Design the sequence.
C-alpha cells in the first residue's frame, strides 16, 4: 500500500505556505478536522434514528437527542471556540455572529470563521450525502477589542482559507489556503484523514450541468437559454444533468469530472437561495484555486462586497469554460443583473 500523508502531517509541513505563518491557522484547521470527525460519527448514525430516538427524544443514557444540523452547529462552535485562535464565528444556524473571548476574557485572537455546519440537511433522512462548509478570515478591527459585523462582511477575495467536508460514501475534507486545493479521505477504522486527492483541478471543460430544473418556469431568460444550449445536440452536447441537492456533493463531483453548478435567481427566490458568506464565497475560493470560476451570472463572486450576514446571491460555479458560456447567455439580459 502506498504511504499516504495524513492531514495532520500535511498541515504542519505546509504551514510555511501560509502568509502569516504562526502556526495558528494549522491549529484552526486541526480543530475543524476534529469537529468533522465528531459530526461524521453522528451523521453515520442517522439511519438508526428510529432505533436510537428522534430529535426531541431522550436516548438510552438520558441525553436529549438533537437534530443533526443543531448537533453539527454546536460541535463546530464548541471546537472552534476552544483553542485561543478564533475571535468570532458566524453560522448559517445562528441569527447573529458570536463573539469568542480568549484567555482571561481577552479579545486577542485573530481569526473569524463563517460556517454552514450541515449543508443539504434535507438529504439526511434519505441517506444522501451532506456537507460542512467553512470560510476563514483575519479580523479587520483592532486586536484586543470585541469583533464587530465589519469583521464578517469582508469580500471573499480576503479569505485566508476555506474548505468543506463531504459526508458521503467516504468522508472527505477538502481545503485551500490559497495554494491550490487538496482533498483528504477519512479512514474510519483509524479515525485519520489521508491525502487522497492532491492538487485538485477542475477540467477546463465539462459535460455535466447541475441545477434544480424543476423551477425552470421561474428562472431568468438567460438561464433558460443556457439550459436549452446544454440540451442541444451539437459537438459534445447534450450534457448530462446531475443534481444531488447537496451543494458540497454536486460541487465535489463537478470538480473531479468537469461540470457547472447553478443556483440562479428565480421569481420564487429573487436573490437566489444560497448564502454569500457561508456557501458561495468558500465554494468560489475553492473553485478558483482549482482552476475553475464562480460568478453570480455577471460578475466574480469573490469581489462582491457583502452587506448582510445572511445575504443570498445567485451562483454559477465550476469548469471555467462552462461558467463563461453561461455568462454569455446571461449578458443578453443585463436587467437581470440587478437582483
Ligand atoms: P440548506 O443550507 O438549507 O441546506 O440549503 C442549501 C442547499 C444546497 O446544498 C443545495 O444545492 C440546495 O440547497 C438545494 O436547494 P433546492 O432544493 O431548492 O434545489
Ligand atoms: Mg446551507
Sequence:
Amino acid at each position: 500500500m502506498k504511504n499516504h500523508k495524513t492531514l495532520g502531517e500535511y498541515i504542519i509541513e505546509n504551514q510555511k505556505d501560509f502568509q502569516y505563518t504562526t502556526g495558528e491557522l494549522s491549529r484552526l484547521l486541526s480543530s475543524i478536522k476534529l469537529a468533522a470527525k465528531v459530526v461524521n460519527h453522528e451523521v453515520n448514525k442517522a439511519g438508526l434514528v428510529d432505533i436510537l430516538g428522534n430529535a426531541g427524544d431522550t436516548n438510552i443514557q438520558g441525553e436529549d437527542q438533537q437534530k443533526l444540523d443543531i448537533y453539527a452547529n454546536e460541535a463546530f462552535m464548541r471546537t472552534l471556540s476552544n483553542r485561543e485562535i478564533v475571535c468570532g464565528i458566524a453560522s448559517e444556524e445562528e441569527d447573529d455572529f458570536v463573539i469568542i473571548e480568549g484567555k482571561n476574557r481577552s479579545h486577542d485572537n485573530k481569526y473569524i470563521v463563517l460556517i454552514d455546519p450541515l449543508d443539504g440537511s434535507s438529504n439526511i433522512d434519505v441517506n444522501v450525502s451532506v456537507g460542512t462548509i467553512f470560510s476563514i478570515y483575519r479580523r479587520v478591527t483592532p486586536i484586543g477589542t470585541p469583533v464587530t459585523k465589519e469583521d464578517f462582511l469582508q469580500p471573499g477575495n480576503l479569505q485566508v482559507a476555506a474548505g468543506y467536508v463531504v459526508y458521503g460514501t467516504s468522508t472527505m475534507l477538502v481545503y485551500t489556503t490559497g495554494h491550490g486545493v487538496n482533498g483528504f479521505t477519512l479512514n474510519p477504522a483509524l479515525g485519520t484523514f489521508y491525502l487522497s486527492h492532491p492538487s485538485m483541478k477542475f477540467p477546463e471543460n465539462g459535460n455535466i450541468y447541475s441545477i434544480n430544473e424543476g423551477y425552470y418556469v421561474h428562472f431568468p431568460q438567460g438561464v433558460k437559454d443556457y439550459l436549452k444550449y446544454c440540451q442541444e445536440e451539437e459537438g459534445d452536447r447534450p450534457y448530462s444533468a446531475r443534481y444531488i441537492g447537496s451543494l458540497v456533493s454536486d460541487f465535489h463531483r463537478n470538480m473531479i469530472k468537469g461540470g457547472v453548478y447553478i443556483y440562479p435567481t428565480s421569481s420564487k427566490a429573487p436573490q437566489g437561495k444560497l448564502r454569500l458568506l457561508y456557501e458561495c464565497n468558500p465554494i468560489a475560493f475553492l473553485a478558483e484555486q482549482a482552476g475553475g470560476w464562480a460568478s453570480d451570472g455577471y460578475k466574480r463572486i469573490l469581489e462582491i462586497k457583502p452587506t448582510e450576514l445572511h445575504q443570498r446571491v445567485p451562483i454559477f460555479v465550476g469548469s471555467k469554460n462552462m461558467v463563461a458560456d453561461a455568462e454569455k447567455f446571461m449578458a443578453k439580459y443585463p436587467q437581470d443583473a440587478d437582483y
Notes: The mean pLDDT is 92.
